[in-house]
Known about the structure:
mainly alpha; single chain; Four Helix Bundle (Hemerythrin (Met), subunit A); 15 helices; 291 residues; 2 domains
Amino acid sequence: MPASNITFRDYYELCKPRVVALMLLTAVVGMFLATPGMVPLSTLVFATVGIGLAGGAAAVVNHLVDRHIDTLMARTRKRPIAAGRVPPRYAIVYAIVLTVIAMALMVTLVNTLTAVLTLATLIGYAGVYTMYLKRATPQNIVIGGLAGAAPPLLGWTAVTGNVDPHSLLLVLIIFTWTPPHFWALAVHRCQDYERAEIPMLPVTHGIPFTKRCILLYSMLLFAVSVLPFATHMSGVVYLLTATLLGVRFCYLALSLYRDQDNTCAMKLFKFSITYLGLLFVGMLIDHYLIT
Length: 291
């Protein structure tokens, strides 16, 4: 396709803006939780842009590497590279440019630790997960989820310049959230993943086993989500938020476990996105109520 026919929307879509937006929400909350006062405006702006650009670059690599299997799946066959709207060589250049700009911003205007951790996260998602784990093991989401769980840590280090145990607790929450979130989608799209020969858990171990794992992970997520209160990182407002959201998450997971036709899978998947956003917003509100 000639370069003149590629639209801004194609490049925008390559960055998976919805995924990056949720990632940035957790990163920004991590920034505010790192300080009792306000985050310096320059740090807030440049760290958010840098983390967002790095996340976008990782998404572009994901589109590039998965372009062949994307054509086999109904959910992804219209993606810019899979549909032939953006040539692979353009995507490579795009990813490199995004990465270079992100690293330049982080090193010069944020701090070196955050730049290093951001680059490691990008490599972990784009390289280790997308290029290897996704096709190598049904535990791809579990292991690869560590990279996707890093944004609040990046936000925290952008403000403080060091790794705090509380920031790792935020990582743990997202790390535990990732498997039930993605497995719910995998249950709904099991035939697509099987057609594309991606060893997602429902494909390799069956849907009933996957639904049992989703339920167990949802219960574990509930327990992990109250740790900020247990460690005195957050207060009662957060505890109430985590409890209400956790009960709803577990209810949907239980409904999916009992569901014979798997119609609850997408309900759980969609709610899991809302869950993570509201959980972190609740944590942020609580932080400024008790400081």
